[in-house]
UniProtKB/TrEMBL annotation:
<dbReference type="Pfam" id="PF04117">
    <property type="entry name" value="Mpv17_PMP22"/>
</dbReference>
<feature type="transmembrane region" description="Helical">
    <location>
        <begin position="155"/>
        <end position="175"/>
    </location>
</feature>
<dbReference type="GO" id="GO:0003950">
    <property type="term" value="F:NAD+ poly-ADP-ribosyltransferase activity"/>
</dbReference>
<comment type="similarity">
    <text>Belongs to the peroxisomal membrane protein PXMP2/4 family.</text>
</comment>
<dbReference type="GO" id="GO:0005737">
    <property type="term" value="C:cytoplasm"/>
</dbReference>
<feature type="region of interest" description="Disordered">
    <location>
        <begin position="1"/>
        <end position="33"/>
    </location>
</feature>
<feature type="transmembrane region" description="Helical">
    <location>
        <begin position="187"/>
        <end position="207"/>
    </location>
</feature>
<keyword id="KW-1133">Transmembrane helix</keyword>
<protein>
    <recommendedName>
        <fullName>PARP catalytic domain-containing protein</fullName>
    </recommendedName>
</protein>
<keyword id="KW-0812">Transmembrane</keyword>
<dbReference type="Pfam" id="PF00644">
    <property type="entry name" value="PARP"/>
</dbReference>
<dbReference type="InterPro" id="IPR012317">
    <property type="entry name" value="Poly(ADP-ribose)pol_cat_dom"/>
</dbReference>
<dbReference type="InterPro" id="IPR007248">
    <property type="entry name" value="Mpv17_PMP22"/>
</dbReference>
<feature type="domain" description="PARP catalytic">
    <location>
        <begin position="298"/>
        <end position="393"/>
    </location>
</feature>
<feature type="transmembrane region" description="Helical">
    <location>
        <begin position="213"/>
        <end position="231"/>
    </location>
</feature>
<keyword id="KW-0472">Membrane</keyword>
<dbReference type="GO" id="GO:0016020">
    <property type="term" value="C:membrane"/>
</dbReference>
Length: 478
């Protein structure tokens, strides 16, 4: 150091001036100059100089928080305590917000909040020392420094943080034996999530925030991310609610008999208005009416359950948006063991390996036709799905053991069965559970009369008559 060297040189010159040359007798001490006192001052200055040099060396060698001065050490310990407390508090707040979004109308679990608070304490402790270590790296351009810190954070700290989070949370939850498997299962998903949306904010924190506030900034980032996720969840719930309402409107609009002439469109509007006030009663009544149109009266309906699957409804509406088509209410009879899969995933055309009209998912225009495929369960109950079907602009006559390129039918005029090759053309809207036992066959002449067959033939004759009237009305219009 130039300043300290200059001070040493001046002290040496002063000492040479005070000491007489070799071979010369010392002069008598001036009465105004105290030699002993001057020597004491020189010794004190040497000690101060030596202490200053050592302090400078220690300041460059010893890490932060371990300064020789008690005041500096106390300041570093205070910052560490503040970072630990801040991270613990904000982590607890983040989990509280997350629980409010996950569980509606229920108080947050205190034990879970405490677990996140405990991990937040560890995160604050580790983050404090990590940010201090990054700050001690050689300084370059500010952009380069920020890029180096973000790169080091992404390659070192973030992977370690993800692994520690999964491991520590499993241990705190009492699943220490599953901690390693938990890390292996969820590590990559958690890591890629951290690399996604939050990466620009990480660069912003490293580039703009002082070191002493970086732990708090990252904890606030976690809280902000959780709040944003909460808003998204609420928005998704609102979208699902809108889809539920749209589903009811769409189903009610479609609950006009497929064989009913267009002049009955006012009936559809009336059904929509009724569904707004009494959605369940209006739709159930319409479903039962369509069901008994081709089923004998002794059949007992046990329940009519509305099926709400937003994912499948979105798929169906997207198909309708791409290719507008008329929607018909159809029926699909099935076995009891297939009901759950159909309600969850819809009708899958790829599961059909046999069929008189091609490979695909089959639906019937009348419940009496679908009843032939609704096998009874152990308790005698049967299941039939009410299915909205977007037939499309083209219709072909199906052929056995062939995959039709478009919607196929058993006949082109007034069909009774459709075969669909695309799953997004079908949406299961209701599940009818009914019982058809103790129905006596009527003896007529030399044989027996099947009540199901009689009712179905009557419905088919009515639909053929309505179809002819509709075609005649169209000719008169054009």
């Amino acid at each position: 150091m130039p300043g300290k060297s200059l001070r040493v040189r001046r002290l040496s010159e002063l000492r040479d001036d005070l000491e007489p040359p070799v071979g010369e007798a010392p002069e008598a001490a001036s009465p105004s100059l105290d030699t002993a006192r001057l020597e004491e001052d020189l010794q004190g200055m040497r000690q101060l100089l030596t202490r200053g040099l050592w302090d400078s060396v220690l300041a460059n060698v010893m890490p932060r928080g371990e300064s020789k001065h008690p005041a500096r050490a106390a300041s570093g310990a205070k910052l560490l305590q503040q970072d630990v407390a801040t991270a613990a508090t904000l982590n607890a707040a983040s989990d509280t917000v997350a629980q409010l979004s996950e569980v509606k109308d229920r108080k947050p679990c205190a034990a879970r909040v405490l677990r996140y608070m405990g991990f937040g304490s560890l995160d604050g402790f580790a983050g404090h020392h990590w940010f201090e270590a990054l700050d001690m790296l050689p300084k370059h351009d500010s952009v380069i420094d920020t890029a180096q810190k973000v790169l080091a954070d992404s390659l070192v700290y973030t992977p370690c943080w993800c692994a520690c989070f999964l491991f520590v949370m499993a241990v705190l939850e009492g699943r220490a034996a599953e901690a390693i498997s938990e890390v292996r299962k969820d590590f990559w998903e958690l890591l890629t999530g951290n690399y996604g949306l939050t990466l620009p904010f990480v660069a912003l924190i490293y580039g703009c925030s002082p070191v002493r506030y970086q732990v708090a900034c990252f904890a606030l980032l976690t809280l902000a991310y959780t709040i944003a996720a909460l808003l998204k969840v609420r928005f998704d719930r609102r979208i699902d609610s809108w889809l539920d309402s749209l589903c009811e409107f769409y189903q009610t609009l479609a609950l006009v008999d497929p064989w009913t002439p267009r002049r009955s469109a006012r009936l559809a509007v009336l059904k929509v208005m009724t569904a707004v006030a009494f959605p369940g009663a209006a739709v159930d009544c319409s479903v039962q009416k369509l069901f008994f149109d081709s089923m004998p009266d002794p059949v007992e309906i046990l329940s009519v359950d509305q099926v709400i699957q937003p994912r499948l409804l979105k798929r169906f509406l997207a198909r309708m948006a791409e290719e507008p088509a008329s929607v018909e209410v159809t029926f699909h009879g099935t076995r009891p063991e297939f009901v759950k899969q159909i309600l969850n995933d819809g009708l899958d055309p790829h599961l059909c390996v046999t069929g008189n009209y091609g490979f695909g998912a089959y639906v019937a225009t009348h419940a009496g036709v679908a009843h032939q495929y609704a096998y009874p369960g152990e308790d005698g109950s049967r299941h039939m799905c009410v299915t909205l079907a977007a037939v499309g602009a083209r219709l072909v006559k199906g052929k056995e053991r062939e995959a039709p390129s478009t919607t196929a039918a058993d006949r082109l005029i007034n069909p009774t069965q459709y075969c669909f090759t695309h799953e997004d053309q079908l949406y299961v809207s209701h599940l009818i559970t009914y019982r058809a036992t103790d129905i006596q066959f009527c003896r007529t002449g030399g044989g027996f009369q099947d009540p199901f067959h009689t009712k179905l033939r009557a419905a088919l004759r009515a639909s053929e008559k309505d179809e002819k009237n509709e075609n005649k009305r169209r000719v008169e219009i054009f």
